[in-house]
Structure formats: structure tokens, C-alpha cells
Amino acid sequence: MKNTVVFDIIGTCFSLDKPRAKLVEFGAPTYALDLWFAQTLRDAFALSHAGGYKPLKQVLEAELPRTMQMLGVDLATTQLASIIESFAELDLQPEALEAFKILNDAGWRLVALTNGSENSTRQLLERANAIDYFDSIFSCDAVEKTKPHLDVYNLVKPNTAIATWMVATHAWDIAGAARAGLKTAFINQQEKGYLAIYPQPEVIALDLVTAASKIVEIA
To answer: Deepest in the core among 33, 79, 188, 211, taking most CB within 10 A?
Structure first.
């Protein structure tokens, strides 16, 4: 059985620049994407923690008008729909394919683990010509709980082997994976610092290529 690297998808492998640009195009401030996405995750986590569940896209759709109202930005229904649709056109991070190749060439198995849907993740990877690097795609929809709930990380554990790593750009995702018993690599390009209250990752890297190289080196 092969060692495995589990990748977060939204924000880690794929950039959120397209929905950010759409928001700015429609008159929202540059930080609108960060606020909207953070509130979406917060409310998805809260619903999951309280024993409920809604797919990520539904939470994004519910959160967007409220975020725009908070920012004083009045958008038409068609504009709101256009912003949501941009999530189907996310671009792969520039260094991602090289990182995937480094791991594949070293004999590692790649798995996607996402709060998004399995279908949308597959479409993103296919669109980016990256699908062939991945052995499996797992979505929190399967257990109707969001990351960082341990049940989500347990989806990959029966399918993993000797060494299992989680790579993510979100500190909360790294913390959840560590609590589930995975080794972790934190990409600090977005959040910069890592929280001291969380379990510390084995690797902290500026980008995916550096993280991939360090994982191979440590193993």
C-alpha cells in the first residue's frame, strides 16, 4: 500500500481569485470575499456542530446576500448567481501541478478531501487537467458533517496506508487532521501565521511545491 497525501481543495489547491474579482467588479470591497467565505465556513461549522448539515454551496448562496447587505452593496439576483457560478471556474494554484507530480513521482497516492461536493471537485480537477494525479475524492457530504469534524478525516483513514499527510492552507483544517491522527503540512501563503493553540504541523511551507518536497524528504 502507498503512502498518502490528502489535499484540501478550495483555497489550498484552487485559488479564490475569480469570485474575489467578480465581487470587486460588482462594487464590493477587495476584502468582501474573505468576509463572505469566513462567514460561510463559520455558519456551516455551527450548523454541523449543532447536529444539522447543509452542502457548502447552499451555505454560500444563503450567506452571500447577507454579506453584501452588511457591506452596503446592492446586487441583482443575476449578479449574485454569477458570483456563485464562479466557484465552478476556480483556477489551480500556479505551483499545484508541479507539487502533484513531485509526490506521484515519489510513489505517493493523492486524495482530495473537501467541504465542497465530490462532483464539483471532480469537475475542477478535470478542468485543470489534474484529475489523473488523484486516486480518490472524498466530500464531507458523505457524512453530512463539515471539516474539521473528525468523522470527515476518518473518511480517508480506511483508504490510507503507512504515512498519511494532510495539506491545507487553513489552520483549522490542519488542526482537525492532526486531531484525527494525520501528519500535517500547513501552507501559510494565505493565513500567514499558525495558531499556537492548535496541534503544531510537521511542515510549514509557503507553497505547495515546498510542502510536497518536504513531505517526501521527511518520509
So the answer is: 211
Residue 61: what pLDDT? 97
Q: Residue 39's domain spans which residues? A: 17-89
- What percent of the chain clears pLDDT 90, i.e. is strictly above it? 93
This prediction's pTM = 0.94
CATH code for position 166: 3.40.50.1000
Name the grid cell of 5: 497525501
CA dist list (Å): 6 to 14, 19, 103 = 14, 25, 11
Query: Are residues 36 and 97 both part of a single domain?
Result: no
Q: Is 213 exposed, middle or buried (0-12, 13-18, 19+ CB in 10 A)?
A: middle
Q: φ, ψ for residue 112 (rounded to 5)?
A: -100, 135
- pLDDT tens profile 85-111: 999 999 999 999 999 999 999 999 999
Radius of gyration (C-alpha) of the chain in whole angstroms: 17
Domain count, the chain: 2
